[in-house]
Amino acid sequence: MLTLAFDTATSAATSALVRDGDVLAEGVSRAVRILADAEELLEQANAKPRDVQQLVVGTGPGSFTGVRMGLAAARSLAFALELPLAGVSTLDALAAGAPGSLPVIDAGRREIFTLADSRPVALAPGELRLEPGTLCVGDGALRYREVLEALGAEVPPRESELHLPRARFHVQLATEFVEPDAVEPLYLRLPDAEQKR
């Protein structure tokens, strides 16, 4: 089964082409390049768009624009190629890349998106309740390193792969493939423009 997956919820968009659990190609770029990235992955694997049998997309939370862009691209591809689509939480994918870690995504507005009692939440970094030595990963962990370390967390170096919500983990976590319009984003709060109104 050939699966194309991507996530555009954070500052680094990730993509992967996976066949039966084997990663054929993957990349990291900006969200605006995600379709070009998908085309490059297919070229690297000597595959054509019609060879893809299913799609997986990151549903956030993260950048409102990034999540919308990724979901729109995934839905468009799924409709055009008549493929089933699965949505996977960006937080879950981050955590899968570093088992036992706490995923922390920069939410803007001096907040983070993370998991509390296994549920996605938006809160100020200083409101986190952490066990000493908790490994925190993601762009939010990097941005708020000092705050998190003061709370007892450990944050890997900036260049660590653990901070990327790698699309290969989305494929591992995908369980329910549905019609493209059935996949919903995970926003956790109103977009900035709507909040100002």
Question: How does this model look, in words?
Answer:
- This protein has 197 residues and is α/β, with parallel strands linked by helices.
- It has 2 domains: 2-90 and 166-189, ATPase, nucleotide binding domain (Nucleotidyltransferase, domain 5), CATH 3.30.420; 92-161, ATPase, nucleotide binding domain (Nucleotidyltransferase, domain 5, 2-Layer Sandwich), CATH 3.30.420.40.
- Helix content is 30%, strand content 25%.
- The strands form 2 sheets. A 5-stranded mixed β-sheet has the order 3-2-1-4-5, with helices on both faces. It has a 4-stranded mixed β-sheet with strand order 8-7-6-9.
- Helix 2 links the parallel strand 4 (54-58) and strand 5 (85-88).
- It starts with a strand and ends with a helix.
- 43% of the residues are buried.
Write the layout of secondary structure elements.
Layout: E1 2-7, E2 13-19, E3 22-29, H1 34-44, E4 54-58, H2 64-81, E5 85-88, H3 90-97, E6 102-108, E7 111-116, E8 119-123, E9 136-137, H4 139-143, H5 145-150, H6 167-173, H7 192-196
Parallel strand pairs: 1-4, 4-5, 6-9
Antiparallel strand pairs: 1-2, 2-3, 6-7, 7-8
